[in-house]
Amino acid sequence: MSEKYAAEFQTIIEKAKSQERPMRVAVAGADAENMLRGLFQAEAEGWVKPILVGNYEKIRATLETIGCVDRKYDIQPTADGDSPVQFAIEMINAGKADVLMRGNTQTRDFLMPILNKANHLIRKDALVTHVVLLKVPGYDRLLAVSDVTLLINPTEEHRELVVKNMARTLHAFGIPKPNIALLAMVEKPSYHMRDTVEDQNMVRKHSHKPIAECNLAGPIAYDLIISKEAARLKNYDCPYCGEFDGIVVPNLMSGNLLVKVLEHNAGAIGCGVLAGAKIPVAIASRSDNEEKTYLSLAACGAMIVDGDVEK
To answer: Looking at the 3D structure of the chain, how many domains does it have?
Structure first.
């Protein structure tokens, strides 16, 4: 599977394959067909060891559906009513697994145990955010977008933490000083649009004391983010136009819509991870294909190789 991906994803995959040992992936709710297919492909390549957590009968039925029922797997059954996510987290905290992966679980049911302070998964002074990494046709590099799952209307302080998470994640993917854009509808700050004023404040603060190891620009509209020609035509002076590595969105709706349009209408290929946690967390929708699961696992592997974990 790995050979067919764009060079940018291939770099991440090869980094994941360079781990000293296969990473142990605890799949919370492991009765999801495409997620298991992507997981097993990574296992076949030698850099993942699956741990299937959830309802035993459902997991066995799913394995039978995809033609893998006769193979031996580490299945950790959970009782009816018990959370497979909590079970997987306890395995990780006990040192029996390295990576948490979303399986057939509702988004809220997956996220709440991660955000529960009693589980000790959140980094100190950090915020958990969802970073989606996309290869968009016609754009010559990978493009990260965040946050697209958790922060409905983030404050300026929250978005500074999103910038930190995105920069740290992109560092793990081999981009030492990423160019990050603060997405807005217009380029000039307007007090009628709170996010544009906050964008300007963030860029000013960043110029005096960097928020993260990155180049930061904004407020800036999407056409200027992806096109040098659009910047030329609009006389917009920014050296990073057409060369941005990441987009921090003003709210959840805009981020979620942007990613879905790029994936479903523009043919973008992508994957998702949670940033701000002490461990890598692979997250994909239950309707996603096996490729997205595979790439999400590769991203987690790259984070481990980069040392982006806390014990």
So the answer is: 2
